[in-house]
Amino acid sequence: MRITTPTLLLDKQKTIRNIRRMADKAKQNGVRLRPHFKTHQSAQVGEWFREFGVQAITVSSVRMARYFANHGWKDIMVAFPVNVLEMDAINELAARVNLHLVAVNLDTVTALAQQLRHPVQLSLKIDTGYRRTGILATNYAELDSVVQKIREQDKLQFTGFVVHDGHTYKQNDVYAIQTIYNTSVYQLHLLRERYKSKFPNLQLSIGDTPSCSIIDSLRGVDEIRPGNFVFYDLTQQRIGSCSFDDIAVCMACPVVAKHPERGEIILYGGSVHFSKDVILQEDASSIYGRIVELTPQGWSGPVEGIEVVSLSQEHGVVKASPEQFKKYSVGDLMGVLPVHSCLTANLMQGYLTTEGEQLEHLTGLPYRELVS
Amino acid sequence: MRITTPTLLLDKQKTIRNIRRMADKAKQNGVRLRPHFKTHQSAQVGEWFREFGVQAITVSSVRMARYFANHGWKDIMVAFPVNVLEMDAINELAARVNLHLVAVNLDTVTALAQQLRHPVQLSLKIDTGYRRTGILATNYAELDSVVQKIREQDKLQFTGFVVHDGHTYKQNDVYAIQTIYNTSVYQLHLLRERYKSKFPNLQLSIGDTPSCSIIDSLRGVDEIRPGNFVFYDLTQQRIGSCSFDDIAVCMACPVVAKHPERGEIILYGGSVHFSKDVILQEDASSIYGRIVELTPQGWSGPVEGIEVVSLSQEHGVVKASPEQFKKYSVGDLMGVLPVHSCLTANLMQGYLTTEGEQLEHLTGLPYRELVS
């Protein structure tokens, strides 16, 4: 199959190796793996998780939940604060799958109590340090009132506490990540103790790929919800979550121009393909992708002396050493490891495996309803 | 029609006003308006240009050219360096529309000469200062050899020179933008002189929204190709290309959480909706959107004391003064002016007009072929 435009390649062996490693780690630690499917958003990639015993999944929107429900998934957590405007879609889903929702405040729980027509599992999102959203782990007044409200409602089954420690993304020190993890687990245990007399089976769930990848002993929680690990990317490599060789997706971009006077190569591949996430390097320069050599079986490790240094809407600018510069001609394809695989996959709307199979992505499906 | 998820609102009156203003300016200056459709990528929005006499358009990919060709456009420039890997699709298009291509080097012209089966217009992209791509305006050796190569080919009709002065995006001083424009026009005139004995009708075409919006007298060129002006955005407002009131698209995002202890409101609306373009403010803070009040007819001007300060995949974090904070409740919709309307529209895959009409966007159409 001939590639003529920017294309997101997927190495199925690496992907499955990433899934296996995380599934094995979950099993060794006695925790449930509830992978976050927002990274791949693909029914076919989702199927690859089943052979590792995965039955419960995480998604980040009601639309994504509906998509995976339509592909046979029966136990789905929407790990985003409930959007009360989508109650019709939530009720439709709750009627046919084991739906887990996440609340971050009393208003939402009240709206759910009034409008839900089918039972759902409800977890509380706890903020143990990231400070994006969630109820602060020390805000006992709010926690008590929310828990009390849940208790009064027969359609709300209080399941436990979920955390997303997004601040691990700012680290590249295994001890810092371990400390963040321990701090979260400590706070979650206190919460479980506080409510265990009324709710003896509360589950503790954590979610970020850095913690789940880097920490060997994930004891203290019941469930992990990493997502990015299925593909990894340059951001995760920099954090220390993976090696370059674990990165399972790679862009193939046509070379359209060369500028020898400044050692720059222009790719067909810009911010509408990669997104604009960036890695700030130690020398204060920014990179938008690392270059690899495409091979018949996939791609090599990253090459030194050549990288994507800027992106506009459709253009990527690659800076190359003289040695690297001369390797490429107009009309060649260049391989680029993405900075953030979730956003790149979201824009690319589909995958081509290194074996030549096309895989779908939710965003590539027919024109969605703007409103419901 | 009820909005329940992040939705890109489009004010048709403002859009048409933006189109009219640019069409009037083109007419007053005696230049052809060949608008760039990469900003809206919508067949329906494209139709609005016809009543202003627009017959020739610009696009940034062969796929986009095919889409607008399928919607009746007959004169289409692909303002991106020819990707020689797409020759089959180029030939298919060249058979049915007046196709203009843009070359930046001899290799591409040679490949076109060998593989084109139908005549096309060919312009040379000139680099007059932006330094992204194009042939340097002073590189006469390369220019001469490329022009000679074109001259030898009967399927290549040498049309003229195109420039995209993307460095105007870094300015917010009308004199700087005027100087960039004058510098480009000066260099283009020299090139036209150089080749006029062999090619007496060479056209000069420039393309950036800041120049086309800010400069009153666009004399010296034959054609302008602005795109972003159809919607404008916060980036253009900051440059000085438009007022806030000219911004014709606005995101409507559900409020899902409030954090009074830090004056932050969490929106359902993240980098998969807005993209990650950012405005760095004078105080070194970053903003990802300005907040407006949604009204039955559209939206207000931007409100002071409240703005989007960070984005993750699905979450937007809004920082609000106490006065603004208390205006919003969970379940409300918040209006957000985007930093970069092209990328936001590309992600949102469709529009809802303030009159309730749904408009399509190319990226929202059924799953595209990954390979051709």
From TrEMBL, chains A, B:
Gene3D superfamilies per record: Alanine racemase, D-serine dehydratase-like domain
BP GO terms, sorted: D-serine catabolic process
Coiled-coil ranges per UniProt: none
Domain D-serine dehydratase-like stretches: 248-355
GO molecular function, one term: D-serine ammonia-lyase activity
Pfam families assigned to the protein according to its UniProt record, in alphabetical order: Ala_racemase_N, D-ser_dehydrat
InterPro entries recorded: Ala_racemase_N, D-amino_acid_metab_enzyme, D-ser_dehydrat-like_dom, D-ser_dehydrat-like_sf, PLP-binding_barrel
Keywords: Lyase
Source species, domain of life: Bacteria
Listed PANTHER family: D-SERINE DEHYDRATASE, ZGC:162816-RELATED
Family: Belongs to the DSD1 family.
Name of the protein in its database record: Alanine racemase
